[in-house]
Amino acid sequence: MPFAPTEVTMTTNPLVTFKDVDYAILLGMPRREGMQRKDLLRANVGIFKEQGDALDRVAKKSVKVVVVGNPANTNALICAHYAPSIPSRQFTALTRLDENRAKAQLASCTGVAVENVKNVCIWGNHSNTQLPDVAHGYLVAGDREVPVADYVADKSYLQGEFIKTVAMRGAAIIAARKLSSAMSAAKAVADHVRDWHLGTPNGEFVSMAVISDGNMYGVPPGLVYSFPVAIDKKGGHRIVSGLDVSPFARAKLDATTAELQEEKREAFDHIVHQVAAVPAVTAKPVMHGAQPATPAQGSSVSTN
Ligand SMILES: NC(=O)C1=CN([C@@H]2O[C@H](COP(=O)(O)OP(=O)(O)OC[C@H]3O[C@@H](n4cnc5c(N)ncnc54)[C@H](O)[C@@H]3O)[C@@H](O)[C@H]2O)C=CC1
Ligand SMILES: O=C([O-])CC(=O)C(=O)O
C-alpha cells in the first residue's frame, strides 16, 4: 500500500517523537571539513543515549531503528544499550550509502548499469577503516552473472584505489560542498528501510551494520558492525554465513573491529564521566522477525 501520511508532528520532545513508532531514523550533528566521523562521538553520544532511553519508554517493542548520525555504528550501540526492553538486533546503522558508492564505482568502470552490480558489501565501521568487498560480487550482463574480479582484472585497483575512493567519499563530498552528503544519504536510508521492510531477493544480500552477536566471521560480540545481510519477507535479518574471507580481507576486518572497540570504550567512558551512574546492562532476547528466540541465543550490549 502506498505510504500516505495524514499528519506530521514537529516536536523537540523525544517521548512525543517516538510514541508507538514502527521505524525511527536518527540523525545528529554532522562533521566539518578536516574531522573524522569519530570526532563527533562526544557531541553525539549524549543524543543517542537520550533517544535510546525515549525509544525504550514509548516506541513499539517491534520498532526498527536506523542510525544515520555519525559515528553511526557506535551511536547505534549506545542507543541499543539504553533501550534494554527492545531487542538489540532491531538497532542498525547505515552503511548502505557506502555500498551504493562502491556499486557506482564498479558501474562507472565497467559500463554495467548500477542496478546490475550485485552482492558487493561493506564490512565493519562506517569510517575510513571499512572494507568495501567485491570478492562475492557479480555483474549481470545479459543472461550471465560475471564475478567482479573477472570484469575488473586489476586486483591492485580493487584492493587500493577502489577501497580508498569509497571509504573517503564522505570527506570528498564535505570538501566539495562544505556540507555532508544529503540526497545520496537519503536515497541510501530509503534503500535500507525498503529492504528491511520488504526483504531482499533470494540469493542477494545488502550491507547493514547490525549487532555482531553470533556472527561466524570472528567479529567479537557486542559491536554494531556492517555485514552482508539477507532479509526475509517478514523483516527478519540474518548475517549471511559461509562467505570466504581472504587474508587481505581478514586484516581489514580486524582493523575495523579494533577501531569499533576503541570507539565503544570511548563512548561509554564519556557517558560514565557525563552521567553519575550508568544503568545496569540488561540481557535482551535475539529476535528473528517477530519470533522470540530461545534464551540460549540471548544477546546483550555490554560495556566491556
Ligand atoms: N551514515 C551515513 O551514511 C551518513 C551519516 N550522516 C550523518 O548524519 C547526521 C546528519 O547530517 P546532516 O543532515 O548533514 O546534518 P544537518 O546539520 O543538516 O542536520 C542535523 C540535524 O540534527 C539536529 N541536531 C543537532 N544537534 C542536536 C541535538 N543536540 N539534539 C537533537 N538534534 C540535534 C539539528 O537540529 C539538525 O536538524 C550527521 O551526524 C552526519 O554525520 C550524513 C550522511 C551520511
Ligand atoms: O562523511 C560524513 O561525515 C557524512 C557521511 O557519513 C557520509 O557521507 O558518508
From TrEMBL:
Pfam families: Ldh_1_C (PF02866), Ldh_1_N (PF00056). It comes from the Eukaryota. The active site is at 126 (proton acceptor). Keywords: NAD, Oxidoreductase, Tricarboxylic acid cycle. Residues 95-269 form the Lactate/malate dehydrogenase C-terminal domain. Its EC number is 1.1.1.37. It is an enzyme of class 1 (oxidoreductase). The keyword NAD applies. One of its GO terms (molecular function) is L-malate dehydrogenase (NAD+) activity. NAD(+) binds at residues 44, 68-70. Coiled coil: none annotated. InterPro entries: L-lactate/malate_DH, Lactate/malate_DH_C, Lactate/malate_DH_N, Lactate_DH/Glyco_Ohase_4_C, Malate_DH_AS, Malate_DH_type2, NAD(P)-bd_dom_sf. GO terms for biological process: malate metabolic process; tricarboxylic acid cycle. It catalyses: (S)-malate + NAD(+) = oxaloacetate + NADH + H(+). Belongs to the LDH/MDH superfamily. MDH type 2 family. This is Malate dehydrogenase. It comes from Allomyces macrogynus (strain ATCC 38327).
